[in-house]
Amino acid sequence: MTAENRLFKRLNTNWVVKLRATRFTDTSIKRMRERIRNISVGGVYIETSVPFDAGTHVSLVFVIPGRAGRISVKG
Could you say which of 6, 42, 47, 64 is the most buried, measured as most Cβ atoms within 10 Å of its Cβ? Predict the structure, then answer.
């Protein structure tokens, strides 16, 4: 998908994100510290060292530089 076809404009970033990933059918938990490379109203692109399978549940915690407080989200 090209930038012209996107519904929402993306903001390029290099924010650190703490990521916790679990599979619904698995009890193992992966904890990582990765980078958010871009973000928009419609989603976020996180560059990870390990790809995730479809159906993986993730919890993210990150800080937007210049803003107070942490942001915690699940996906």
Answer: 64
Which residue type is seen at 53?
A: D
Query: Are 50 and 65 within 8 A, CB to CB?
Result: no
Q: Check if the beta carbon of residue 11 is closer than 8 Å to that of residue 32.
A: no
Across-strand partners of 31? 20
Task: Go through the chain and tell me how many residues it has.
Answer: 75
Contacts of 48 (CB under 8 A, 6+ apart): 19, 32, 34
pTM for this prediction: 0.74
Among 46-50, 65-69, 70-74, the range scoring the smallest mean pLDDT is: 46-50
Residues 6+ apart with CB under 8 A from 10: 3, 38, 39, 40, 45
